[in-house]
Specification:
Layout lengths: L11 H7 L1 H5 L4 E5 L2 E7 L2 E6 L3 E5 L5 E5 L8 E10 L3 E9 L4 E8 L13 E4 L6 E6 L5 E2 L7 H9 L8 H14 L6 E7 L5 E9 L6 E6 L3 H6 L5 H4 L5 E3 L12 H8 L4 E8 L5 E8 L7 H35 L1 H8 L8 E13 L2 H7 L2 H21 L3 E6 L2 E7 L13 H28 L7 E17 L2 E7 L1 H16 L3 E3 L1 H6 L5 E6 L8 E5 L29
Parallel strand pairs: 21-23
Antiparallel strand pairs: 1-4, 2-3, 2-10, 4-5, 5-9, 6-7, 7-8, 8-9, 10-11, 12-13, 12-17, 13-14, 15-16, 16-17, 18-20, 18-21, 19-20, 21-22, 24-25
Helix pairs in contact: 3-8, 8-9, 11-12
Length: about 575
């Protein structure tokens, strides 16, 4: 593989051109004919085929096969933005591959303008063997086909471990890179699985599975409620988590069924010959595990297992970094909401960091909570409060809203209309956001109705509540003391949403909606007349959903001067 781009480019080029590094440090690069015809295939497409390939043997690197440019199908390759630098060869350029069903980034590289000491490599291009699907070699003298290296290459695997493995950007990326490296080194591994325990309110573990020939990596999450049954008890790696140094099942020598380990039945049926599990021990002592399955006759070689076992502690530190990042994002989402957590992950962590955005503001409150707290034992009141929050906040989350705060027995949430961190290039659409808020409100009401039916059957009074919906501009960001911040929304629109919720007590409707919201609502809403909101100088017309209007009159469509949102006709809605 090309060298790492972190090498000091300011000093190295002149040294490389003079050849001083090669002579004084004994560094050697040889390009010799390769004695086999080689065909490279990815996504069913032949990328290169040649009987005139060359192999580069370079000090401290695994041998690499290079193809004459004339043997490469450049019609399926596009130039990459990536380049790396080698002080002995020069700048390496890269190419992506676009196949019928998937795109493979940086699958090939070359040195189009190498240093004069190695100028012959300018006519060659190399492919990352770990990224291709098939690497078929035909002996030029006997015609014998080889679809995998003849033996395990410790050099190739160690090269991956100390270079490419560190470049993985995610747990999925690392898992796939590990699987490809094992195959490139000669292990013939169709399946790799890496799992670790999680700090999460709902999940106990996460498992990432890579399968050769399939795009991407599949992620499985074990919920706390069923982890013992599904993830742990019936797993072949359970002994690892209980302290075993390794597990191994030579599937080609064993006959099923494996009654307690159904995964082994599946692997054997798929042609696997060997299954090995090894531990990943994190710095805090937590024992996690990974497994690899081979399909070559005889399974894993002893040298391959020795190299993999020796590399496990190094890989464990890499996996721990990805696991901690995943945990951090999970906790941000859990305690702040996915939208706010994403913003903090983008770096909005200073007091005062934030943006003015337009959003639907949701404010709801549980009625009679003081009396309920006095009447119920603390644990029963807490359970009731959590039940209320699950109905309300759960509905918001189900419709892609963000719950910002639980204020005693109240919930503050938003449905952003637009966001400077939106990943899709889509125009803001207040109507879609208002519809999401309406759907969430209806779901919350339905959930509370179900709770109240159960309470009635038990002889308990129904839960009463109010929901206020408003749309307007808010300041969305960090507020608080220097060493104790909260990511929330502030502004007059937030206060108005709270006033709307309070008005539900007076109008005998569980949901009260502002005039500004009504203007953008894709559904007809029912007017409940003009009312004065506390802190608002002039009376304003309020609305509710048709099913909650006392006389269910026909909803009126009124114009609005709500700011800062532009009138609907100006944005095409």
């Amino acid at each position: 593989m090309p060298d790492d781009p972190t090498f000091d480019r300011a000093r190295a080029p002149e040294q490389g051109r003079s050849g001083a590094l090669s002579r004084t440090r004994g560094y050697r690069i040889d390009l010799v004919p390769y004695p086999r015809k080689v065909r490279v295939i990815a996504d069913g497409v032949v990328l290169a085929e040649s009987g005139e390939a060359a192999v580069m043997r370079e000090t401290r690197h695994a041998p690499v096969v290079y193809f004459p440019r004339s043997s490469v199908d450049f019609s399926v390759l596009t130039e990459s933005e990536r380049y790396t630098f080698c002080p002995f060869k020069g700048d390496a350029s890269y190419w992506h591959f676009q196949g019928p069903s998937r795109r493979i980034r940086n699958i090939a590289w070359a040195y189009p303008h190498p240093y004069r000491e190695v100028e012959e490599i300018a006519e060659y291009i190399a492919f990352d063997k770990s990224l291709v699907d098939d690497w078929v070699e035909e002996d030029l003298t006997t015609g014998e086909l080889h679809t995998a290296p003849d033996q395990w290459s410790s050099e190739i695997f160690r090269s991956w471990l100390f270079k490419d493995a560190w470049n993985a950007s995610s747990m999925q990326d690392f898992t796939a890179s590990f699987g490809r490296a094992l195959n490139a080194a000669g292990a013939s591994v169709p399946r790799v699985s890496i799992g670790f325990w999680m700090l999460h309110p709902l999940l106990s573990a996460q498992n990432h599975v890579w399968e050769r020939g399939k795009p991407g990596v599949e992620t499985f999450e074990a919920r706390k409620s069923d982890s013992e049954k599904d993830y742990y008890s019936n797993s072949p790696i359970r002994p690892i988590c209980e302290g075993a140094e390794a597990v191994r099942y030579r599937l080609e020598e064993l006959s099923g069924p494996f009654d307690d380990l159904p995964l082994l039945d599946e692997l054997k049926a798929a042609g696997m010959t060997d299954y090995v599990g090894l531990p990943f021990v994190f710095s805090d002592g937590q024992i996690n595990a990974f497994s690899i399955a081979a399909d070559r006759a005889g399974g894993f070689t002893e040298q391959a297992l020795k190299d993999i076992a020796e590399a496990a502690p190094v890989m464990a530190r890499m996996v721990e970094v990805h696991a901690q990042r995943s945990t951090m994002l999970t906790l941000l989402d859990t305690y702040l909401g996915s939208h706010a957590g994403e913003r903090i992950n983008y770096g909005l962590i200073q007091r005062g960091d934030g943006d003015f955005i337009n959003a639907v503001i949701w404010f709801c409150d549980l009625r009679d909570s003081t009396a309920l707290a006095d009447q119920l034992p603390p644990e029963d009141f807490l359970a009731l409060l959590n039940q209320f929050f699950e109905c309300m906040a759960g509905a918001v989350i189900d419709h892609e809203g963000t719950v910002l705060r639980f204020v005693g027995d109240a919930v503050l949430a938003i449905f952003p209309v637009e966001d400077v961190y939106m990943t899709e290039d889509l125009p803001p659409d207040p109507q879609l956001v208002c519809q999401a808020a309406i759907d969430a409100a209806r779901q919350a009401v339905a959930k509370i109705d179900g709770v109240n039916q159960d309470r009635a059957a038990a002889g308990d009074a129904p839960l009463r509540y109010g929901i206020g919906l408003h749309i307007g501009e808010v300041l969305y960001g960090n507020v608080g003391a220097p060493d104790r911040l909260e990511f929330t929304v502030i502004g007059p629109s937030v206060n108005e949403a709270a006033r709307l919720e309070a008005k539900t007590k007076d109008v005998d409707a569980p949901i009260v909606i502002s005039k500004a919201f009504q203007t953008w609502s894709p559904e007809a809403l029912n007017s409940i007349g003009e009312h004065r909101l506390r802190g608002v100088a002039k009376p304003t017309e309020l609305f509710t959903l048709p099913e909650f209007a006392a006389d269910a009159p026909h909803a009126r469509c009124l114009e609005t001067s709500a700011k800062p949102l532009a009138p609907a006709e100006e944005t095409g809605h």
